[in-house]
Design a protein that fits this description.
The chain is an alpha+beta fold and 190 residues long. The protein has a single domain, classed as Sandwich (lipopolysaccharide transport protein A fold). The chain has 3 helices and 12 strands, in the order H-H-E-E-E-E-E-E-E-E-E-E-E-E-H. Strands 1, 2, 3, 4, 5, 8, 9, 10, 11 and 12 form a 10-stranded antiparallel sheet that branches. It is globular and about 50 Å long.
Length: 190
């Protein structure tokens, strides 16, 4: 009888291990494009959240509650994030929050040039993982070092290190840019 009751009632972890394994497998699938070689390890995407709902058939995963995405030197923190994937892998992530925060750590680019730390925030951030483009929408602000951009839409292209800001079609708010003089350069010109 003791042996029969052991099989009749599975321990709690036996019911939770399968969904947890599926969650870990889904995170692993998100990381596959970055596993191609050692030089691409910065491309692995790590996601944390309080809850996740994954629909493999539709290729949609919804992460809710204290969501944090890390990919190399990029971090996005949001209330909710939706990941869209197809046969060729993860396509884009849409993060919403009040606000969503984005950070790209200071680094050195492929040409050996130093890049300033970049921070941004908006009510929505779309991250196109294939094209490496981050689009901040609705009350968007972006800081590059001490310089600041604000507008309804700000697009940051990670690969080309360019920023484009616009008021958007439904907004009367104009784009605002604040540029601080480079104190190092101005010191050298004296």
């Amino acid at each position: 009888m003791y042996g029969d009751s052991m099989h009749a009632h599975k321990p709690f972890f036996a019911h939770t291990i399968r969904p947890f394994t599926g969650f870990v497998f889904a995170l692993f699938l998100l990381a596959i494009p970055g596993l191609c070689n050692a030089a691409e390890t910065k491309q692995i995407i790590y996601l944390e959240a309080d809850t996740v709902d994954i629909n493999e058939k539709k290729g949609i995963s919804v992460y809710k509650g204290n969501v944090k995405l890390s990919r190399g030197d990029i971090t996005i923190v949001a209330d909710m994030m939706t990941a869209y994937k197809n046969d060729s892998g993860l396509q884009k992530l849409i993060a919403t929050g009040n606000p969503v925060e984005f950070t790209k750590a200071a680094s050195t680019n492929n040409k050996g040039e130093k890049q300033k730390k970049i921070k941004g925030q908006a009510l929505e951030i779309d991250y196109n993982t294939k094209n490496e483009i981050i689009k901040l929408k609705n009350n968007a602000k972006l800081w590059q070092g001490k310089d600041q951009f604000s507008g309804n839409i700000i697009v940051y292209n990670i690969a080309s290190e360019t920023v484009t800001a616009s008021k958007g079609s439904s907004s009367n708010e104009r784009v605002k840019v604040i540029i601080h003089p480079d104190t190092d350069a101005s010191q050298n010109n004296k």
